[in-house]
Amino acid sequence: MDIDFNIKDLNITIVGLGLMGGSFAKALKPLKPKNVWAIDIDGDALGEGVKLSIIDRGYLNPKQPLQDSDIVIICLYPTLVKPFIEANKDNFKKGSIITDVTGVKIGMMNDINSVIPKDIDFVFGHPMAGREKKGLEYSSAQVFQGANYIITPNQRNKIENIETIKWIAKNVGFKKVIELSPQKHDEVIAFTSQLPHVLAVALVNSDDLGIDTGSVVGDSYRELTRIAQINSELWTELFIENKVNLIQKIEILQENIEKIKNSILEEDVESLKEEFEESSSRRKNL
User: Fold this and answer.
1) What's the DSSP call for residue 9?
2) What percent of the residues of the chain are helix, what percent strand, and what percent coil, each to the nearest 5?
């Protein structure tokens, strides 16, 4: 579907100028929209954004920019999104598009759709990108390059608005932009994103060696545990919000670990080789 807008005519507001918000600002600026504004409770972050020329202006009060914004990208923690929508539902420009970056969808989607005005279209999105640290200082347009982006459409969305968000995602650097139902999204994310974080955290916290582990690790440990340096506030929210899916994936992982453990105990060489060959084949096909 061809887009029927010119990015240079659009005012885009980012809510939350931290890691993700700052990365969006840095990626959007080269596209030359009419304005890139930011809303945040941190005046220093807004001032830094202006200083870096990644936003045209920062606002502590959301009312003014929201009234003139064609697209709003909400880069807040999941539990903060609905309160922001409720507090500002009368401030959004009629016909504007809102999107987000949160890693869980079902509960939040239902909550937001129950309060958002009918003339505002919230196209739920999830950039599969980020870093282990938080804050504007760690933001970078490069985090989106070659990454995946998931849109979870719902019956309120207009096709042309979904296409607008797809266009933006692709033009800030995402390689693949796909659509999933919110139910499938949360199941998929439990496995592809949340479970690896569970594994990395559990592995690091299982260290009982009693020595300076950092002086003896190799690439495999470093690569597997990179994401263990985790934003505890954000990931606690994500785990709890998606607990049904995540617990199911943890239990499947536990079953597979137990299978490998038993093969080792029983010195079942063939069984171990089968597990290794199966994993190698699956990883090669990713």
Assistant:
1) G
2) 55, 15, 35
pLDDT tens across the length of the chain (286 residues): 556 679 999 999 999 999 999 999 999 999 999 999 999 999 999 999 999 999 999 999 999 999 999 999 999 999 999 999 999 999 999 999 999 999 999 989 999 999 999 999 999 999 998 877 889 999 999 999 999 999 999 999 999 999 999 999 999 999 999 999 999 999 999 999 999 999 999 999 999 999 999 899 999 999 999 999 988 999 999 999 999 999 999 999 999 999 999 999 999 999 999 999 999 999 999 8
Give just the sign of the alpha carbon dihedral 92, 94, 100, 104: positive
Task: Report the run of H or E that residue 178 belongs to, with start and end.
Answer: strand 176-179
pTM as predicted = 0.89
User: Does residue 245 sit in helix, strand or coil?
Assistant: helix
Q: Which long-range CB contacts under 8 A does 27-32 form with residues at least 24 apart? A: 27/141, 27/144, 27/172, 27/173, 28/168, 28/172, 29/53, 29/54, 30/141, 31/7, 31/171, 31/172, 32/7, 32/8
Q: Which helix (H) or strand (E) holds 74?
A: strand 71-74
For 21, counting Cβ atoms within 10 Å of its Cβ (0-12 exposed, 13-18 middle, 19+ buried), the class is: buried
- CA distance to 37, 205, 231, per residue, from 32 (Å): 12, 46, 32
The 10 Å Cβ neighbour count of residue 150 is 22
Provide the token pair at 71: 């697209």
Q: By C-alpha distance, which of 100, 129, 178 is closest to 23? A: 129
Q: Tokens at residue 179, please?
A: 């659509």
